[in-house]
Amino acid sequence: MGYAYFRMYGYNSTSGHCEQFIYGGCGGNDNRFESLEECKDKCEHRRKRCIIM
């Protein structure tokens, strides 16, 4: 686990929506967006497949 504290957004396939989470700065995957709008654009609005949380 990293020591950073970044507010990020990721797509939750269970809820079908993008949700905020805290990213510690280490590891992770491509389901990490800097803004809610970016997450929604890539995952919700276009219904593209995103890596799930």
Automatic annotation (TrEMBL):
Residues 1-43 form the BPTI/Kunitz inhibitor domain. CDD domains: Kunitz-type. InterPro entries: Kunitz_BPTI, Kunitz_BPTI_sf, Prtase_inh_Kunz-CS, TFPI/VKTCI-like. GO terms for cellular component: extracellular space. SMART domains: KU. GO terms for molecular function: serine-type endopeptidase inhibitor activity. This is BPTI/Kunitz inhibitor domain-containing protein. It comes from Dibothriocephalus latus (Fish tapeworm). The lineage of its organism: Eukaryota, Metazoa, Spiralia, Lophotrochozoa, Platyhelminthes.
